[in-house]
Automatic annotation (TrEMBL):
Residues 53-212 form the Nudix hydrolase domain. CDD domains: NUDIX_Hydrolase. InterPro entries: NUDIX_hydrolase-like_dom_sf, NUDIX_hydrolase_dom. This is DNA, SC166. Pfam families: NUDIX.
Length: 219
């Protein structure tokens, strides 16, 4: 049976099967007691819908001198919680059939980067947020992903000719100014000591992501 406790890091080379597994994790987080096979079959055949508002969160790592750094975005002054830092991500929209769809769209909109692979999922999270007299139930699925630009960046950095300009992340990452005003590649130590002020459970989840990539250096 699926449960929140069972939604540990998971990876798969089969993209479609992996997407269905992610969806099953969302259902498990809200207490759905059906087994994963039944949930995946129902999702595949369009027999069940979803009432919670869904969040997909992407943790992107870049290895520098054998140490991982995580991509964080600083919220814009014109947005809520200005000046706070967070990983790329956001709420799933109607056209997002799977968490992978939401991740790909949000990462592209917020950073201009192209998702190439979801390598791990972290434990799902649920919470309730009040707005006026209404309570909204949310379920979040944090993921560790790879982006295609990372390979380009690393290959350019190791094989550049002296006549070529140095490739910088500022040349690759394109922020949406209505949402974010800056980005940083933070070390685990910087996250732990709150160099980048975060809200909610972003810090806790980022540290879990660091633990996952440190354990599996192939991420």
């Amino acid at each position: 049976m699926l449960s929140i406790q069972s939604t540990q890091s998971h990876s798969s080379s089969n993209g479609v099967q992996y997407e269905l597994h992610e969806c099953a994790l969302w259902y498990a987080a809200i207490g759905d007691k059906r087994d994963e096979v039944t949930i995946r079959s129902s999702l595949r055949n369009g027999l069940i819908g979803f009432t919670h508002r869904r969040i997909a969160c992407a943790h992107i790592f870049w290895w520098v001198l054998r140490k991982p750094r995580i991509l964080l975005l600083e919220r814009a002054l014109c947005d809520t919680r200005p000046g706070y830092w967070e990983p790329p991500g956001g709420a799933a929209e109607d056209q997002d059939e799977t968490p992978g769809d939401a991740l790909k769209r949000e990462v592209g909109e917020e950073t201009g980067l192209q998702l190439s692979q979801v390598t791990h999922t972290l434990p799902t999270q649920t919470w309730t947020r009040s707005k006026g007299r209404e309570d909204y139930n949310w379920v979040g699925l944090p993921c560790i992903i790879k982006v295609s630009e990372l390979e380009t960046f690393e290959s350019r950095g190791s094989s550049q000719r002296a006549s070529q300009p140095v490739l910088k992340w500022e040349d690759i990452i394109r922020l949406n100014p209505e949402e974010h005003q800056n980005f940083a590649w933070a070390t685990e130590e910087e996250v732990r000591c709150d160099k980048y002020k975060m809200f909610g459970n972003h810090k806790e989840t980022a540290l879990k992501a660091f633990a996952a990539v440190t354990e599996n250096c192939s991420v």
